[in-house]
Design a protein that fits this description.
15% helix, 251 residues
């Protein structure tokens, strides 16, 4: 997680944690955190005068939950470019609350041609507006989470209409819902109780694939241990996305 840059563009916003953002303990959920990121990112690009039709596809999100914000807590949001490649870039988000909430997020997005959906070179306007904050740091889009473990348990995960976005695919924040289910001990979780990982700072990683269609039959491959929660999203036997939750490194 690169720190706030001393040069370049940093866009700031603020919002309050609402009831629809929290679990039954009043703590901010991962899917709500993803929506916070989407909202402040859209506000940033609009404020910068970027092309509203520019097309970006998320490939990776790393969320470090140092201390989860809670219901009615005001949170300050700061977002900036944390690194670049020829056809992709990292967006950083720092979330700090007035009651001590603290989350750091790094997401990697691929810039694509809307007509062909193929990766495209970053436009000159991006380099002028956002690249200076990256201070020359380069990032890569490679995946790291790998294939499902041999002992993974299969859990059905039916899609809902509210999981879909304007493009007719599962929206980015909806991928975090089954992770929350397993962490919070929901009806579909393997242990049926709050996960030990939530008792300490933790890191949650999501690597996205090509996208899940609205008519897909999704199965989760789940490995649940006290110090590690791993999920793979499989459609027709092929893994589309993967998630991993572990204790926050260095804590």
């Amino acid at each position: 997680m690169v720190p706030l840059p001393e040069v370049g563009r940093v866009f700031r916003g603020a919002r309050r944690v609402r009831l629809g953002d929290t679990d039954h303990n009043g703590q901010l959920r991962l899917d709500a955190c993803a929506r916070f990121l989407q909202d402040v990112s859209n506000d940033d690009t609009a404020d910068a005068g970027e092309d509203p039709k520019a097309f970006w596809v998320v490939r990776r999100a790393v969320v470090d939950v140092v201390r989860p914000p809670t219901w009615r807590e005001w949170v300050d949001l700061a977002t900036w470019c944390g690194g670049t490649g020829s056809r992709w870039a990292e967006r950083r988000l720092s979330l700090t609350g007035d009651h001590g909430g603290h989350i750091e997020v790094a997401t990697l997005w691929i810039y694509v041609d809307a007509a062909t959906m193929a990766p495209a070179r970053l436009p000159d306007s991006f380099a002028e507006t956002y690249a200076p904050a990256a201070c020359g740091r380069k990032v890569k889009p490679r995946r790291t989470l790998g294939a499902p473990d041999d002992d993974a348990v299969t859990v059905a995960w039916p899609l809902r209409a509210v999981d879909l976005d304007l493009l007719g695919h599962v929206t980015n924040s909806a991928y975090w819902a089954p992770v929350e289910e397993m962490l919070r001990g929901g009806p579909a979780s393997l242990r049926g109780e709050r996960h030990p990982l939530l008792a300490t700072p933790y890191r949650a990683v999501m690597e996205f694939g090509a996208g899940i269609a609205p008519d897909a039959e999704v199965e989760l491959r789940v490995c649940d241990a006290d110090d590690r929660l791993a999920l793979w999203f499989a459609v027709g036997g092929t893994v589309d996305a993967a998630a991993l939750v572990v204790p926050l490194p260095g804590q």
